[in-house]
Amino acid sequence: MHITRSKPHVIAGIRYYKPTVDRSEYREKDRLMKALPFQVMIVFMATVVASGLAAQPVVIDGEVPAEGGFRSVTLLQGLEHPWSMAWLPNGNLLITERPGRLRLVKGGRLVAAPVDGVPDVFAAGQGGLLDIRLHPRFSENRRIYFSYAHGNAKANHTRVAAAQFNGDRLERWTMIFQVGIQKSGRQHFGSRLLWLPDESLLVSIGDGGNPPVRLAGDWIRKQAQNKQSHLGKILRLDDTGNATSDNPFSGMVDAEKTIWSYGHRNIQGLAYDSLRKVVWASEHGALGGDELNRIVKGGNYGWPTVTFSREYLGGFKISDHVSRPGMVDPKVVWMTAIAPSGLMVYTGERFSRWHGDIFVGGLKSQDIRRIDLDHSGQVMGQTALRIGHRVRDVRQGPDGLIYVLTDESDGHLIRLEPTVDNQSPPSP
């Protein structure tokens, strides 16, 4: 199915584009329908229409209404490009800094000295010490998992490591996985980590970079469609770094057994939706075309074969297609780039009217986009929580409040708290 954008509809200040379907691709279906009994034909037509509508993403261009009912409280300053955070069972907080430091917040105060035990990382451009996640059974094994960039400007890749935390330092740092292809440059490492309920680990890996970065004689971004490459993928590993046996391509000789989904550009937001039992990912586009995707096992998300994005140089189309049969369409597309990083599904009670909604951090937009979902996960509307800083990560804390890291040389840890004015602007 080929989808193009129609004229915009303006609702509550948002320009929405309702994609239109190229019916030429249904000619074969039309021929087959003529041979069907009338009743069967009616059912068939309804199925085609329903499937076409379900595939259409919500395409947003321009600003969205501001969200109310909260206040921002700055808890810490002086963090150097913080990237991710994780709470310990005792309430203390660990924060990664991209230059290669792990910081401990104890009793609400930032410990002056970084946590020992982090090796050197490739800290340049978008590379460095990135995500952090506690093992699901951390209270038993004290293991913490990290993603980071390793190498140098000419040869580098994303790695995943595990280490034990004794309360003051990391011990037994062990690299458990590394991307099998070395690339050049300082772009598109990913990389978010996410534990699934079965204790398998999802890892997002970037496509390697924008033109003119090349690999094997072609643009490196095309590796996202190569199932023999880790680049441009979500991988699924066990807690030792090996592929799980039920991965979608585990039985194929010409595909990486670690791949869970592919055709991604650079995912820096990954969250499990415990209410709907699905995985969501937020993905950087190029010049526009940022995406929110609902991840399915074995899905091909199209990059760069299908995309709403344009080239940074000249603004030309990267592809003539925004959708194709056999590829998964995004749920939301931002034509005005927000540069998404950090993603969560809110399950707390402190902001009861936001229960079940998705929150997407925006680096360029300097806000958090609240995606209003219905019970099935369909997008109902969107508002913006204005932060005024580049949002790198957004997480729900153990107290049910929302915590934010800002991507700056003087990075902040911010807590969002409810106010008595809990009315939000109307959602489209």
Keywords:
single chain, 428 residues, mainly beta, seven-stranded mixed beta sheet, four-stranded antiparallel beta sheet, 3 helices, globular, disordered C terminus
Folded structure, characterized:
- Helix content is 7%, strand content 40%.
- The radius of gyration is 22 Å and the shape is globular.
- It has 428 residues and is mostly beta strands.
- Strands 1-2-3-22-21-20-19 form a seven-stranded mixed beta sheet, with no helix packed on it. A four-stranded antiparallel beta sheet has the order 4-29-28-27, with no helix packed on it. It has a four-stranded antiparallel beta sheet with strand order 5-6-7-8, with no helix packed on it.
Outline the secondary-structure elements.
Elements lengths: L2 E9 L2 E8 L5 H7 L4 H17 L3 E4 L8 E10 L2 E6 L5 E5 L3 E6 L2 E2 L18 E6 L3 H4 L1 E9 L4 E10 L4 E9 L14 E3 L5 E5 L8 E2 L2 E2 L13 E5 L21 E4 L4 E7 L4 E6 L6 E6 L36 E3 L5 E6 L12 E5 L4 E7 L5 E8 L4 E6 L5 E5 L4 E8 L10
Parallel strand pairs: 3-22
Antiparallel strand pairs: 1-2, 2-3, 4-29, 5-6, 6-7, 7-8, 9-10, 10-11, 11-12, 13-14, 14-17, 15-16, 17-18, 19-20, 20-21, 21-22, 23-24, 24-25, 25-26, 27-28, 28-29
